[in-house]
Amino acid sequence: MSAHPPLRKSGAPARGGLRGRRVQKARMLVLGRSFSDGLLAKAVIYALLSIVAYLYLQPLLYMVSTTLKDMSDLLDPTVKWIPRRITWDNLAKAVEGLRYPEALRNTALIAVSCSLVQVIVCAMTGYALARLAVPFKGLVTALIILTFLIPPQVILIPLYVIFSKLGLLNTIFVFLVPALFGQGLKAALFILIFRQFFHAQPASLEEAAKLDGAGTLRLFFRIMLPLARSACLVVFLFSFIWYWNMYYEPSMFLAQGFTPLSIRLDNLEDVLNPSLLGNTHFITNPVTEGTKMAAAFLIILPPLLIFMVLQRWFVAGIERTGLVE
To answer: Residue 250: phi, psi to the nearest 5?
Structure first.
């Protein structure tokens, strides 16, 4: 027998080479499909995100555009987004009409102080409902949920009478006192957030602290509260925004002088056009859309800056507290 392998016919490809080319072609096809599918999926996701971002940013962009327009641009229907001449008069009028520094101080004082009190009080209440042997714990939780479901208009008159007898009207204490007793703005929701967070913590932390001689208050302030930093941030930001934007309660309990930005925005039209109230000696401008948009922009600017700075920790805090479940 011959030791040499049989010669293959000219033009006939080898089995190994043909199989290798088929495998390589199949791999390229799979890679091409996966690349096209991934690119298409990313394009669809980016398109959807762009649409959602535009829906959220469109009012803000319209607000800024209207703020920078003068009267001729406001009256010209052909000027939609970009003004032909940028003016800062609307911002100056808004600052003067709102008495912005004073109103900003009042609003910040109410929002910051009440939010900090709510964080501490709601955290203590939520910890007691989650970890301590509280009598009638289920009933107390149900009553807290019930307070969240009751409209504030129902208890407005009793609260007004109580605050009037205590001499607390037109002061910050009409908001601070309810927050001290766990009945601040949306306090029931915050108590449930803390209750859910503390309920998910392992019992070994408390057992180890109790073996070291820690009492309930020391256990809460030294161990549990530092662990709840994410929940505290979420509660503080939510509470801050709600106190910043509230209108109904200040309109009932606060008089002229100590008024937040929301009340002064509502009265801005009377300030810009006092002729409507009979004060005809004041030169007024019948077109106040730009000034009102500038005032609204000045009101939302501080919370917007705070959220831009704390956005990363805020989102992480929502995930850790289970608020999205």
So the answer is: -65, -35
Rg (C-alpha) for the chain, rounded Å, is: 32
Phi, psi angle pair for 97, to nearest 5°: -70, -35
* Structure tokens belonging to residue 13: 């490809």
pTM of the model: 0.78
- The distance between the two most distant Cα atoms of the chain, rounded to a whole number of Å, is 125
Asked if 269 contacts 285 with a C-beta cutoff of 8 angstroms, the reply is no
Q: What is the DSSP letter of 181?
A: T
Distances (CA, A) of 225 to 47, 48, 110: 41, 39, 24
DSSP per-residue letters across 186-216: THHHHHHHHHHHHHTS-HHHHHHHHHTT--H
- Cα end-to-end distance, the chain, whole Å: 78
Q: For 71, which DSSP code?
A: H
Cβ contacts of residue 48 below 8 Å, gap of 6+?
none
**Nearest Cα to Cα of residue 174 among 101, 241, 243:** 243
Tell me how far apart the alpha carbons of residues 23 and 26 are, in angstroms, rounded to a whole number.
5
For 11-61, what is each residue's pLDDT tens digit?
545 555 666 666 666 666 655 555 555 677 788 888 998 999 888 888 888
Alpha carbon distance 7, 187 (integer Å): 90
